[in-house]
Amino acid sequence: MKKIIAGMLALSLAMAAVGCGSIEEEEPTTPLTNNSDAETEENSPETETQIGYVNANNTVIIDLTKTYMGSDSSFNEEQDAQDVYSMLERAIGQYNSVIARDEKGYFDSINFMSILDSKTFQMLTEDPERDFDLPDAEEDCCGSAVRLMYSAFPDELAKIQEEYESNSTEFVKQTAAFMKEKSGTISADDFKTTDGYESDSIYVSLFDENSWVRETAPEGFADAPEKFCISPDENIVFTIQVEEFIKNERGTFAVLDLCIAQDDVKYCFNDTYAWVTDGKAGVIIEQASFDENDLKGKSLEEAKDEAITIHNVKNANAVAKTAYNAAAEYLADCKTTGRPLEQVMKDGDFGISSEGLDLSADAPTSKGDAHMYRVVNECEYHNGTLLLKVYDANELFIQYKDENGVIGQYPDPIDPADAGKAEWGVRLVPDISAEETAE
Q: Which of 29, 105, 193, 408 could cross-link with 317 by S-S, CB 3.0 to 4.6 Å?
């Protein structure tokens, strides 16, 4: 909870500076209704008759919860698949509401009160100074709702923060009360986008001409977004990457990266927060973008293999970048003492990583390797091998190879499409001419 409290305080200060001027629970649920109150089958909206269209026959689930050591996620695909299927369906409903400019459908799909009235939020706001050490997924879902509220009411919440600046407990309670009061009257017009702050709401980002999301939109989206509504058919392929997941006595909480491949477009909903508390479901798509459908014509197994490859290569690139930044920091310090890269390498500061540094082994004694090892381990990477090489006399690059042999690199991170070309110890240079030709 302390992270949420700190986030509240930090957000309020930032806003003040910028804004001045079917999931199974113990009780029956209705995971896909477009209303915050449960609806019966007779009065459910017509668009909700497709509940269950996400299933094992058209969906790839990739469990990423074990990517980092120390994860507290409890996802089990065999037991929890139906939960994430329903969460994806609700996310699609949210996107379709935005595309149709259906404000009510959008806010009903979020269902703020399912968080603000939850056992989790009640527990946190009643004792905000206590560190409850919530599971990551649960804390992140609560945090997403708080962030979205802040982006809607920055000035008002900044005033509350100013009034109760010396009393964090009262500040949290007053903030929670304000959010509950506004949850029923919030509108798309409440979201603010300024030069210094971009709204967390996809209701804004999908239609803001200055949003980076618009740059990814397919041709025709700006003039007729309703034509890009997602309507499931027999050729659609869904990909669910489960980043975090927990099911406990307070509810079910998940952080997902979602892709819907249909026709020529791949709809990407990254950082999607979804939950069910006391039988009430909610979802917040924090990032929505578009891409070319590279899964068109591929089988479900091929789609799964490709999604896993993309993730593994991107993750390997990320580890390589973390190590590169650590090495660059160490070299910058050495340079201030009169030791350039050539001398550092001659002195053996990176003697182990220049041959291959095993991250699962004990910490190395060579100083440069030890610094890089420590930084990478602090980022929860404890397996795989790092390789540091020098080229052009005074430039270095780093490669990382995971336990499955997947190679990442930095600088010039490896494109997943070129994963088969990567060689250990050989710098893979992007084909600039091909990129220029494509442009």
A: 408
